[in-house]
Amino acid sequence: MSETESMQYTDDLDFEVPEHAGRTVLRLWQTMGRQRLRLVIVAVSVVFYTLLSVAAPVYSAKIVDLLFGEVQAAVSGERVFRVTWEHGGREILFLLFIYTVTGILYTFQSFLMAGFAERLSLELRTRISRKLNRLPLSFYDGHRPGEVLSRATNDLDKMSEVLQTGLLKLFTAAGMVVGSLVMMFWFHAGLTLIFLFFTVLSMISTKIFAGKTLQCAARRQQAVSRVTGQVEESYSGRTVIRAFNREEKSAADMREAVEELADASRRADFMMNAVNPFIRLVNRLGQAVIAVLAGKLLLDGTLSVGVFQAFFQYVYQASEPLTEAAYMLNSLQSSIASVERIFRLLDEEEIKKDPADAINCSGVEGRVEFRHVRFGYSPDRLLMEDISFTAEPGQKIAVVGSTGAGKTTLINLLMRFYEVDGGQILLDGRDTSRMTYAGLREHFGMVLQDTWLFDGTIAENIAYGRPDASMEDIIRAAKAARADFFIRTLPDGYDTRLSGDGETLSAGQRQLLTIARVMLCDPAVLILDEATSSVDTRTEMEISGAMDRLMKGRTSFVIAHRLSTIVDADLILVMQNGGIIEQGSHRELLRAGGAYAGLYNSQFA
User: Fold this and answer.
1) For the segment 529-565, what is each residue's pLDDT rounded down to a tens digit?
2) Helix or strand or coil: residue 456?
3) Cα–Cα distance, 319 to 198 (Å, whole number)
4) d(C-alpha 339, C-alpha 121), whole Å
5) Strand order in the sheet with 422-427
6) Quick count: other Cβ atoms within 10 Å of Cβ 64?
7) How many C-beta atoms lie closer than 10 Å to residue 527's C-beta?
């Protein structure tokens, strides 16, 4: 085994086993579509490449024997040694032609495999991108962001890399090993059996070393993770560490983690550096034994000089693919496992399709009604059992309650981010489940507590919901949201480019931009989830004034923790454990002396 291959054994620690390899490969073949033709062409190219590669040593044996005969004749004084077109030149040129064609074929098939892998990766990446837009929020609730991103990045990259190199190597290796062994047996069966004995010994040794090395490398990876986590914890929590005088304890924990990493690295490095000399020793020992025996056969006249050198060419052509076989098979196995995870993502249950007989959503006034709505994140655990209320056009509806009471869930149901398990949600008397998603949501505007800005200019971010908006409309919305002043203080004004979720702006400025985004859309129904929680008191007062103008004549749902911001609401819904336990105006709920009154008095005691 070469040094590069042995290093790859230890670098790729994720040799995973697919659950249904055959089914996954068959589905991948069906997914290839027109790309299957490229794979067929590669297979045909590999056949010709293998035939020429196997034929070259045989033909070189003929040339070497011819030249050796000329050398012997020159030594005996029969004639002067020279290479002419009739004596060797033609054969050498033809051998050069064979090697040139094999080089062209290998380049050609490598180019085709690269294109095949990248096109297939593009197809799957496109499918994943479309799939992510069709998945319900419940999917994202049950999966970590890194896990989803890994499917579209790491798994696809691994698949593409293995298809480009590993699959091509496997094709060529199979042909080269079979062809070379056939020719070696044809030349001399005894020498071939000796070669196979040392090859099997080398592969067994490699497997043993690889298993030990992977264990050591896995331990080192765990130690690296611990050190990384310790560094992150020490950096992120540096203020708390200093505030509680825990610097020495933090340093001791870091020292312990680093010492563990040093010990694990020492063991892993020893195993990685020990495997190469041992495997090389086994291979060289086998070649030495073959060379001695072949040399005797050469002296006895059983082998010619040309056959002697051709046999060693076949030894090299067969030994290299055999030593690579284990790594290539492991890589392909890991790649199939990656493809299996990709298909698992593509098979996830999607949101319901738009109804074929969708009702018209135009001319919405903003009357919202929840009629005996039931909902649960899982069928056996209901969160809401009987939610009913009505919001008339232009009313301000406040939703209050403790964390986990179901406030955000109520809004998600209104936007059809989740489907209800029972009952109806009506918009202007029309069942929202019979509307298209786009038709429903174009009448809603949301300002969330967590701002989200996209990579682009400030003007593009404001116009995100209305890409065709004019610059005058964008500026008008920014002024209404009290964002125009700070935008004009930026170096490029509305053309200032944002990246990384607008990290160069303050939290309040980012919130102002999201408010301007909603103002520009001019929706019939507004949803405000603590929209002013990230701004200072003065800015909050300015935004509140703009919000009052924006909400005038529109139905508004306001999720609030600070009750002072919703005392003017037309209807206040008090939620607890997924249910509405009280509803009414501010004065009515205070007079009732229930949960709302207790919550209000606790804030203003």
Assistant:
1) 876 665 666 766 766 776 777 777 789 998 887 787 7
2) strand
3) 10
4) 10
5) 384-391, 368-375, 422-427, 430-431
6) 19
7) 24
